């Protein structure tokens, strides 16, 4: 195992040392987007200073350097999620784009009236709305697997719902609202034995736990670079080669073809047939640095440290009078959604900001989950490995101050 020096790692993130409203920043909005280590910032800077050129088009030195760095990230990403092949990694601008690609290229041509897509009650809108859009176009319907009040998927119900009308199941790996870690391998086995492909929204899993798409046994896995300490506008879809080969391209343009005439276009092989146009080159080079960085910190160190911090923060929050915590799954990432009796989530977040504490408030792009809990919004503290117990203490002290102010 890689040794873990938390304080040294925290110091890798320049933004964390700033002040907000005259107080040292406590950044607890990591599920929204994560901060970037100097390694990533420096890599993007260096790319623009020394290597900037378009990819895959130029034989000149800069073009080759840019292409090597950009394509190098594909190798790193394939390794990071243990994909069997780099060709199965399609670069996208994020999870939203990755799921839409599957919805339009894979699902839409296969759906007809009477078919269904199975999702869960805890999905992000990115894993609901694309399916609704293709359902509207094809006459298919969405089915929803229920959860318990603790925020755990009811696996038996999910399995019962895998009837022959289900043409695809789509499940979040780690909930962005309540932190639940879903038993993806178990769900994948149930899907596979019925011939149903499974898509996993891994946005919130990639920064916090080891991902092995082969061990998980899913068909599609979507990730977002900016939540794993990389630049915004980067992400990927991993899909089994057979699926990528069977899928028509979603966008057309340059970079995704082998030959074009006005009569006919021969598309490039996957993944390039899904990557039309000039991509976010510097962003993907930065994402490569982020993956290297996570490897250096050690994803197992991250998981262990964050579990301990989660336990500490959960206990600390439970000591706040009138506080309701949403989601108590047994397998959980360090995400804490909460409300204080009689206080609106936005007021909580606004007043916490006065104390230098950044938390998100709102529906977290998960309206159906808010409806399940019967609240319009929650406040959410989402932690990363660079956060500390001291920050949790300052957060809870700020919360007590806010509570006294509003009561
Ligand atoms: N799914 C989940 C669970 C998420 O948390 C997010 C980001 N909040 C997304 C999907 C969408 O990711 P992006 O906006 O980066 O495409």
TrEMBL record:
It comes from Tahibacter soli. One of its GO terms (molecular function) is cysteine desulfurase activity. This is Cysteine desulfurase. Belongs to the class-V pyridoxal-phosphate-dependent aminotransferase family. Csd subfamily. InterPro entries: Aminotrans_V_dom (IPR000192), Aminotrans_V_PyrdxlP_BS (IPR020578), Cys_dSase_SufS (IPR010970), Cysteine_dSase (IPR016454), PyrdxlP-dep_Trfase (IPR015424), PyrdxlP-dep_Trfase_major (IPR015421), PyrdxlP-dep_Trfase_small (IPR015422). The lineage of its organism: Bacteria, Pseudomonadati, Pseudomonadota, Gammaproteobacteria, Lysobacterales. Residues 26-395 form the Aminotransferase class V domain. Its EC number is 2.8.1.7. Its cofactor is pyridoxal 5'-phosphate.
């Amino acid at each position: 195992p890689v040794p873990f020096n938390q304080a040294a790692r925290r110091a890798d993130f320049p933004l964390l040392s700033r002040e907000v409203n005259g107080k040292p920043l406590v950044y607890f909005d990591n599920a929204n987007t994560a901060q970037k280590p100097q390694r990533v910032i420096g890599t993007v800077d260096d790319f623009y200073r020394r290597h900037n050129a378009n990819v895959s088009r130029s034989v000149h030195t800069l073009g080759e350097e840019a292409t090597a760095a950009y394509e190098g990230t594909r190798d790193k990403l394939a390794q990071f999620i243990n994909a069997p092949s780099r060709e199965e990694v399609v670069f996208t601008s994020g999870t939203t784009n990755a799921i839409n690609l599957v919805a339009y290229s894979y699902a839409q041509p296969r759906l007809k009236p009477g078919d269904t897509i199975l999702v869960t009650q805890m999905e992000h809108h990115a894993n609901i709305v694309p399916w609704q859009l293709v359902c509207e176009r094809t006459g298919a319907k969405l089915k929803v697997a229920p959860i318990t009040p603790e925020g755990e998927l009811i696996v038996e119900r999910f399995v019962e719902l895998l009837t022959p009308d289900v043409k695809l199941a789509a499940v979040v790996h780690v909930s962005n609202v309540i932190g639940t870690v879903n038993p993806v391998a178990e769900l994948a086995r149930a899907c596979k034995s019925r011939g149903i492909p499974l898509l996993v929204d891994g946005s919130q899993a990639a920064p916090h736990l080891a991902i092995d798409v082969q061990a998980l046994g899913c068909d599609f896995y979507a990730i977002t670079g900016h939540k794993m300490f990389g630049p915004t506008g980067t992400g990927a879809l991993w899909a089994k080669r057979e699926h990528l080969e069977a899928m028509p391209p979603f966008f057309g343009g340059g970079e995704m073809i082998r030959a074009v005439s006005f009569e006919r276009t021969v598309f490039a092989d996957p993944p390039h047939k899904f990557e039309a146009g000039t991509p976010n080159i510097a962003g993907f080079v930065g994402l490569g640095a982020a993956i290297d960085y996570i490897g250096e910190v050690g994803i197992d160190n991250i998981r262990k440290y964050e579990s301990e911090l989660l336990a500490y923060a959960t206990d600390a929050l439970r000591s706040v009078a009138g506080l309701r915590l949403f989601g108590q799954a047994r397998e959980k990432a360090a995400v804490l959604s909460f409300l204080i009796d009689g206080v609106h989530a936005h007021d909580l977040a606004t007043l916490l900001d006065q104390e230098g504490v950044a938390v998100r408030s709102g529906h977290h792009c998960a309206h159906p989950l808010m409806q399940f809990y019967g609240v319009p919004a929650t406040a959410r503290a989402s932690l990363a490995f660079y956060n500390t117990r001291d920050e949790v203490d300052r957060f809870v002290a700020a919360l007590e101050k806010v509570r006294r102010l509003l009561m």
